[in-house]
Backbone:
């Protein structure tokens, strides 16, 4: 196992060796930013930061954070190379605001390929594996390209089917017999529903592994959440969750132990910070802050992702000594205080994804007349469902999250138009309309 070029030896080293390894890379990255990044040159100057004084991970606390607004306002000031060295232009989805462009050099694409090769290896893929990729490679989307490059680098086969169209997905599985699928987990339920409606024996298919992106599959204790359980009960295959973003150009992937996403120390430095902007104790939930390593085009230093999670520092049973990141609790700015309970949208989505008569939905946050958070969930029902399901759904919410939001029933087609606006690469299921 350890001899594989895509399961790096550093992941099996003692923690002090990993830390020293990261700090050497950090010093190189800081010097690079000082020399080539207009944004960080200005930040260092304004805050009187001497690049050669940043030697350890603890020293990062002397540097201000970078956030999405900085990228939106000063996008091209983050570019560290001449424009003619850019090989690929990528944009973020824009789900939470104006999209941001990321420019990748040839070196960055190699790093991206390496990241995914390492991550796929973590999830058990090897040379000769065949993965059916149910994500887009176009629309300026980083993830689909990254997955393709990583599979190619590790010598695995890839079938670029794209998202949606269950009929095409099943025809491809029948014809080519891949052993793995990569997609948004809730789409698996649609695949199963199509198979059951069309007499496809999906349990006896070639698929042995499903790698989920964009949605959680586990609770904080690493047990499968409602969506994960529903998939597993129907289809007894291995389930792997991942966490990644365009900004970090890296992935945290579960291994077969299913106990959190493994950190790849050659790619990222990670901090978990609390409300006071200081590191939280290990095991406590805070905001994920990342510093990219070995990025050439647009590296980031102390970037606030807005994602809330915690770190599990103990060694994994797989043998890796690197920490594992928990399932994402939610987005920091999406925290809801509702009827005295703290909520995040993923907990509500888990209830909805596990309710058989829900065809589609979107969640809207508003500010009530009293100035408190209000939650309205608009739901489209599957054909043939009795419209009088509001009480049952509220009972499901109370059982899972202790409170019941307002429920509005709407035609499924009307909800679908909200979920898939023009130019969107992802289904949109959350709208924050609260007063700020």
Residues:
């Amino acid at each position: 196992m350890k001899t594989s070029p895509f399961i790096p030896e550093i992941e099996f080293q003692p923690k002090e060796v990993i830390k020293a390894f990261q700090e050497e890379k950090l010093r190189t990255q800081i010097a690079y930013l000082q020399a080539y990044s207009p944004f960080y040159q200005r930040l260092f100057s304004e805050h009187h930061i001497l690049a050669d004084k940043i030697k350890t991970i603890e020293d990062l606390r002397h540097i201000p954070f970078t956030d999405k607004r900085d990228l939106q306002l000063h996008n091209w000031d983050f570019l560290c190379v001449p424009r003619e060295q850019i090989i690929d232009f990528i944009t973020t989805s824009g789900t939470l605001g104006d999209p941001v462009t990321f420019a990748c050099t040839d070196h960055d694409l190699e790093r991206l390929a390496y990241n995914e090769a390492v991550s796929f290896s973590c999830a058990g893929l090897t040379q000769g594996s065949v993965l059916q990729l149910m994500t887009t490679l176009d629309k300026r989307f980083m993830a689909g390209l990254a997955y393709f490059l990583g599979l190619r680098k590790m010598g695995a086969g890839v079938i670029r089917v794209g998202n949606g169209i269950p009929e095409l997905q099943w025809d491809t599985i029948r014809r080519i017999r891949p052993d793995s699928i990569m997609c948004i987990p809730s789409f698996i339920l649609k695949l199963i529903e199509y198979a059951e409606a069309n007499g496809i024996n999906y349990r006896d298919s070639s698929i042995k592994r499903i790698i989920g992106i964009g949605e959680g599959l586990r609770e904080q204790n690493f047990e499968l959440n409602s969506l994960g359980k529903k998939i597993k009960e129907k289809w007894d295959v291995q389930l792997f969750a991942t966490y990644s973003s365009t900004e970090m150009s890296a992935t945290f992937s579960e291994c077969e132990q299913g106990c959190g996403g493994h950190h790849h120390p050659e790619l990222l430095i990670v901090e978990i910070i609390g409300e006071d902007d200081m590191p939280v104790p290990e095991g406590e939930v805070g905001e994920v802050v990342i510093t990219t390593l070995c990025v050439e085009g647009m590296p980031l230093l102390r970037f606030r992702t807005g994602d809330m999670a915690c770190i599990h520092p103990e060694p994994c049973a797989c043998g890796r000594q690197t920490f594992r990141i928990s399932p994402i609790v939610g987005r920091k700015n999406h925290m809801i205080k509702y009827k005295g309970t703290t909520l995040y949208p993923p907990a509500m989505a888990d209830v909805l994804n596990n309710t058989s008569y829900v065809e589609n939905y979107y969640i809207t946050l508003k500010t009530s007349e009293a100035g408190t958070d209000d939650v309205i969930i608009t739901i489209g029902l599957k054909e043939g469902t009795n419209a009088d399901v509001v009480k049952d759904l509220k009972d499901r919410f109370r059982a899972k999250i202790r409170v019941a939001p307002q429920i509005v029933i709407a035609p499924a087609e009307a909800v679908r138009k909200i979920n898939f606006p023009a130019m969107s690469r992802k289904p949109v299921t959350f709208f924050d309309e609260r007063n700020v």
About this structure: DSSP finds eleven helices and 21 strands in the chain.
